[in-house]
Amino acid sequence: MNEEYNRKLKAMGLSLDDAVRLSRELLERCPRNKKGLKLLNYCRDIICHGSRVMQEDCRSISLRQAIEVSLNERQERRPRTLYELNYFRRRILKSPTRIADMELRSISAQHCYDTLMHICATPRQYCKDRVLLHSIFECGIRHGWCNTNPVEALRKPRLQESEMAAMAWEDIERLLRIAKLTPHRGCRPALGIMLWAGVRPAEMLRLHWEDINWEDDVIMISARHSKTGGARCITLHPVLRRWLRKLCDGQNLSGPICPSGWKKLWYNLRREAGVLPWQQNVLRHTFASYHLKHFRNLSQLQIEMGHSTLELLRTRYLNMRGITREHARRFWSPREWCQ
Q1: DSSP string of 105-132?
Q2: What is the model's pLDDT at position 213?
Q3: Phi then psi for 230, rounded to 5 degrees?
Q4: What's the pLDDT score for residue 252?
Q5: What is the DSSP letter of 191?
Q6: pLDDT for the residue numbered 224
Q7: How far apart are CA 264 and CA 272, in angstroms?
């Protein structure tokens, strides 16, 4: 009988000692038999349960499929966000590393790094794509397709932010003067809000008249309209309040602040004012620099800009070269612009 057992065990690659050792470890590592099952049936239950767990742990899908699932789960996002996600997907699918066809569980940090280095042209793009790839693995963890996120092991490079100068005083004067002309009347509210409230151009497109609280003198940027996903309140300074009120003529306006055909109207205003080529976010940078020069309150400026830390303000936004105290005073003076 023993020879028969030895022959069967040998066919499975085990010896009798191995079988005894495995049986003992099986019983020692598992909870006590509270169901009163016979020893053999209890061991069978343990093995079946362990088999199901292992099968569940091995369940996975390819990165290509995980990207599609992640995109479907974000369909409520803004069009710009969806465009960036689709752009990332196209580059991943074309990557020579062929990571798209690998199962999530088999992808290592090195695979992720090699792929990002192939598809990213700049350090800033690397940081953006790293965040997107990280979110896809987080989606995989939620669905049980992987247990860890290999992107977490990748070091996030420190970006060297370059300073951006505020708009020259002569350009500010010319832009506001031309905006007062009748053909450019539709651009005046958005121009004032970007210049004296530091609202981003993309946020401006989503802003409505209802977002202005005239009683509390604040502009409300909701979380769904904000670039960073965080809500903030921006002070409605007297110069901006009067600038906007002159356009309202006592009416309670509603709907989008930017008029229909905004891109063309906004371009025509800048062209006539002679401020082309145009630097993206220059009005936001101008707001930050003139705000600090005049009010000298860095903490308040951080809140109104919607930054989580002061680092970005100090390294990129605050460039007060050429800004005099007199110009800063005039910048915030209603008499200067709203006569």
Answers
A1: GG--HHHHHHHHHHH-SSHHHHHHHHHH
A2: 92
A3: -115, 140
A4: 67
A5: H
A6: 72
A7: 12
- Type of residue found at 31: P
- Give, for 70, the enclosing helix (H) or strand (E): helix 63-72
Structure confidence at residue 49 (pLDDT): 67
SS3 for 312-339, per residue?
Answer: HHHHHHCCCCCCCHHHHHHHCCHHHHCC
**What is the structure's pLDDT at 17?**
75
C-alpha span between 173 and 325 (Å, rounded): 16
Is the bond into 183 cis (omega within 30 degrees of 0)? no
pLDDT for the residue numbered 40: 66
Given a contact cutoff of 8 angstroms between Cβ atoms, the answer to whether 318 and 289 are in contact is yes
Positions of E strands within the chain = 212-213, 218-221, 232-235
Pick from 194, 175, 339, 193: nearest CA to 269 = 175
Residue 233 is classified by DSSP as E
Considering the entire predicted model, what is its pTM?
A: 0.64
Measured CA distances, 141 to 20, 23, 55 (Å): 37, 33, 16
Q: Distance of alpha carbon 286 from its chain centroid, rounded?
A: 24
Give 10-residue mean pLDDT values along the chain (339 residues): 67 72 71 62 68 58 91 82 87 90 91 92 88 93 90 81 79 94 92 95 92 92 72 92 80 85 95 92 92 89 82 68 90 89
Q: What domains appear along the chain, each with residue ranges and CATH number?
A: 63-153 (1.10.150), 169-337 (1.10.443.10)
**How long, in residues, is the chain?**
339
Please, which contacts does 314-319 make with residues 24 or more away whose CB atoms are closer than 8 Å? 315/161, 315/163, 316/161, 316/162, 316/163, 316/164, 317/164, 317/284, 317/285, 317/288, 317/289, 318/288, 318/289, 318/292, 319/163, 319/164, 319/165, 319/166, 319/285, 319/289
